[in-house]
Amino acid sequence: MSGGNENHGWRRIMGDDAYAGITGLEVLRAEPGLAEVRLPVTPAVLNGHGIVHGGALFTLADYAAAIAANLLGEPTVGAYASISYLRSVRKGFAVARARTERAGRRLKVQSVEIRDDEGELAAIFQCGSMTVAGKPPA
Predict the structure, then answer these.
(1) Considering the domain boundaries, does residue 124 fall inside one?
(2) pTM of the predicted model, to two decimals?
(3) Which of 35, 50, 51, 119 could form a disulfide with 88 if both were Cys (CB 3.0 to 4.6 A apart)?
(4) Do the Cβ atoms of 124 and 54 come closer than 8 Å?
(5) Is the residue at 138 inside a domain?
(6) Which residues, in sequence order, are CB contacts of 119 under 8 Å at separation 6+?
(7) How far apart are CA 53 and CA 124, in angstroms?
(8) Which pLDDT score is estimated for 134?
(9) Any idea what the CATH number is for the domain that residue 64 is in?
């Protein structure tokens, strides 16, 4: 898992997420309430039809949302999520842009757009995360 963003505060909060690393996620932007993460299209993320697996796109969106939410200060974990797949991603990369729509005391609500390498909207992800007790990993 790489990070083009020079502010690696997200890495301290998110820890060494092995699953994100396996999928090849690259953090492009990370700031409180906002995140942008890229998924390179490799054979490892393709399904039997030669398109990016829905689970890989879900992981991409979930990770971007988690960074956006957790950088607001309180450690959070996912509470619910839904995704709508609008078009296939076959080559290049997919980029998730997450935005925290509401940050309450216990619940944060995020929306995420996933676009292909041509800028076409491929999926819409909506989720909520709950504040958890304790501190983020050091």
Answers:
(1) yes
(2) 0.86
(3) 51
(4) no
(5) no
(6) none
(7) 15
(8) 63
(9) 3.10.129.10
